[in-house]
């Protein structure tokens, strides 16, 4: 417990290991709270080793309620506020869920399990997303949700971290227990899948995605297509680019299968036939760090705090998890749903 040491800048050092979305948010909130923070990352600034590099970046706590424990929307809703505060330009245009008539039962199930929506008819959908005019008879609109582009937002967070007085060391692979010994300060381990020594039951869940480019479709928000196997979605990026994601496969192999590529591209084509003429810019996969219950965990062992298991929800949950860690360090507050003390 560190509450009596929570102090102005410089009195207690905090080392954060891993500059993915979890580590970046921890470094940011601790630096802003006045701690002397150093963030260590083994990768270059390109960050292609991070799962965060491959993510969709949807901030969708209400949609995720369809397939998650209540702790995910609870923390996710808090994260929306923290994203807004840190990056006010984050688009909060909501999320749209659509389905084809054959998937009607799954659509109704989604509506039942994710209740924070407005039901839309064909005209409402066309008003919201003119490119989808005449393509879907019904939709669900989740108006308060947002999205970020991970490959742009990570560098933005890193700039804010240094502007808050912290140091970031890229190409600097460090082991949390060595740092704890060498610095005598608090160490926050956000190594994602590389932290299997701290979480022996951590496993990779592959998420495959495709990035395409077309100027024939315009979308203002993520569009989810109800699909019997995976939550498939299309997320608009700048410069007429779209990310199509994502599969969810129990595997640590980063390769993309033909079957997955076919399913992702067919899903996009089913949302709008103009995707048939889009240029494929990239096909890739990231490995989501998941614990057996697919829920996040903050494990506290003296001055070493390990944050992991962000699974499908790293961008959604990282700000709220960082806030919980900070509240623990400052005031000893324990969140029983995600924290584990040894
Ligand atoms: C295709 C796909 C789509 C997704 N879409 C979404 C989405 O829409 N919304 C959402 O909320 N989530 C999404 N996710 C999930 C999200 O990407 C993850 O939950 C999140 O990236 C996990 O973040 P992390 O910081 O824990 O791990 P990582 O991003 O992997 O970061 C860990 C970092 O630690 C570094 N590291 C490891 N060991 C060391 C060491 N010894 N020293 C220094 N550095 C080290 C690594 O290089 C890495 O940069 C998606 C994931 C995938 C794959």
Give a verbal description of the structure.
By secondary structure, this protein is α/β, with parallel strands linked by helices. It folds into two domains: 153 residues, 3-Layer(bba) Sandwich (FAD/NAD(P)-binding domain); 137 residues, D-Amino Acid Oxidase, subunit A, domain 2 (D-Amino Acid Oxidase, Chain A, domain 2, 2-Layer Sandwich), CATH 3.30.9. The strands form three sheets. An eight-stranded mixed beta sheet has the order 5-6-4-11-12-13-10-14. A hairpin with a 2-residue loop joins strand 15 and strand 16. The longest helix has 18 residues. The site of flavin-adenine dinucleotide has 42 residues, from helix 1, strand 10, strand 14 and helix 9.
Short note summarizing the structure:
With 342 residues, this protein is α/β, with parallel strands linked by helices.
Distance between the termini: 12 Å
| CATH fold group of the largest domain | FAD/NAD(P)-binding domain
What small-molecule ligands were found? flavin-adenine dinucleotide
Query: Secondary-structure element order, as H and E?
Result: EHEEHHEHEHEEHEHEEEEEHEEEHE
The CATH homologous superfamily of the largest domain is termed: FAD/NAD(P)-binding domain
Low-confidence stretches: 3-9
Radius of gyration: 20 Å
What's the structural domain tally?
2
The CATH class of the largest domain is: Alpha Beta
- Helix share of residues? 25-40%
Beta strand %: 15-25%
CATH architecture of the largest domain: 3-Layer(bba) Sandwich
What gross morphology would you assign? globular
Q: Structural class of the helices, strands and pairings? A: alpha/beta
Major sheet, described briefly? 8 strands, mixed
- How many beta-strand segments? 17
| Strand order in space, largest sheet | 5-6-4-11-12-13-10-14
Count helical runs.
9
Average pLDDT level? 94
